[in-house]
Amino acid sequence: MADPGSPQRLWARRAWVAGCWRESVLLESTADGYWSRVQPESPQPEGATILPGPALPGLVNAHGHAFQRAFAGLTERRASGSDDFWSWRDRMYRVAWRITPEQLEVVATQLYIELLQGGYTHMCEFHYLQHVGDGSRYDDPLAMTHALMRAAATAGIGLTMLPVLYGRAGFQQTTLRDDQRRFASTPDDVLHLRDSVRAMKAPLVRAGVAIHSLRAASPDTIFELIESCGGDEGPIHIHIAEQTGEVDDCIASTGARPIEWLTQHVALDARWQLVHATHAMPHEIAAAAQSGAGIVLCPSTEANLGDGLCDLPRWLAAGAVMSIGSDSHVTRDWREELRLLEYGQRLLLRQRNIAAAPESGSPASAERLFNCSLAGGATAAGFANWGLQPGARADLLVVDTEDASLLGIPDEHLLDTLVFSSPSRPWRDVMVSGRWVVRNHRHHAEGAQAFQAAMFSLANSS
Questions:
Q1: I want to staple 378 with a disulfide (CB 3.0 to 4.6 A). Which of 200, 227, 331, 383 is the partner?
Q2: Is 166 within 8 Å of 199 (Cβ atoms)?
Q3: Does residue 276 carry a catalytic annotation?
Q4: Residue 461: its pLDDT value, please?
Q5: 411 catalytic, yes or no?
Q6: φ and ψ of 419, to 5 deg
Q7: Which portions of the chain are predicted below pLDDT 70?
Q8: The predicted structure's pLDDT at residue 4
Q9: Domain residues of the chain, as ranges?
Q10: Which one is catalytic: 146, 276, 279, 443?
Q11: Quick check: helix, strand or coil at residue 336?
């Protein structure tokens, strides 16, 4: 691992610059961890570190709940006549109700290490697990927030904290269920947590706000939060149109579909990130895309929960800003997310290379999806610059060219193969803000004993 604050001078035979592979790329970073120079077609300089494989920028994971890593794989049995999102949610609540700040830190540390190994260098934490199980406040009201921030610091991943507005159990329910009391928050709570995180000035940490969903926050509290945000440039995230049941309830309660209601009542802009947006009609897609709002797709979780498939071709054709998230973290590698995103569309439409757009110069699905996710993830996390470019944070991934899936692959098909030939080994090396956090596939803080103990305790607690 590099010395803290040490500038880097790297040279890659090939690197992903400005949306495509470039040859002989010199990469220099500043002491505070930002790229100061990215120069393709540069002769190998004396004294530079020669990267052992092609370099890609890390991706932002634009949506996730760290505590849900604690039950990945543990909800895959059906005990009754049906199993859907809502029955999964009830089981998720049982874990959410029990987990302590200490356990959350351990679980999140393990998760963040795995995300780094899977090619994510920044995480957007949709943070609604904030209080004691009975809804009371911890002596330190930010106990759960601090647990996540310590985990991110240990792992070395960047973090955008998104405290969540959560005030009711449903469109027709004005209060929370007993098993939702940990989530209770007001607009003032959300803003206080956001501002507290910013005031800490922790390295690699920034903050925005989130609204759990239209069903879990009343219009009045949503409007109050938005008005209080004013011109603040931080991102604003919301779960929306994930489930057909949610859409039906929204229509019954408001007379409009979820995205339709949001675009009619809120002045959306580039700060807004519509998470899932699975069940959207053409007019909703057009309105959301025209507003500049982004969508955050979570293919592995949407598949795991049986949410359905979004209208990806229409979102792409509308020019919507798009990013990806691992949400419940059943998958923790962006290659798998992009693969599943494309494959779901192929199964639905019975065609191939759905995301590709040869008419506009993007004949490769992997290239288009990666570039969209790269730009969209930056916006979702609140960055003006991202990727291998001057002014962006000095993050990168080094490809393991000895991976069996890549052997004999022509250079121009490398990204295609990274996404569509599996299984893949973890990234050989991972850098975050000019510091190596993964070298030769190993993270500097690996060690699963504490995670195993936390998992055992959660599984066996009453």
A1: 383
A2: no
A3: yes
A4: 65
A5: no
A6: -85, -40
A7: 1-5, 461-462
A8: 46
A9: 9-57+389-443, 60-381
A10: 276
A11: helix
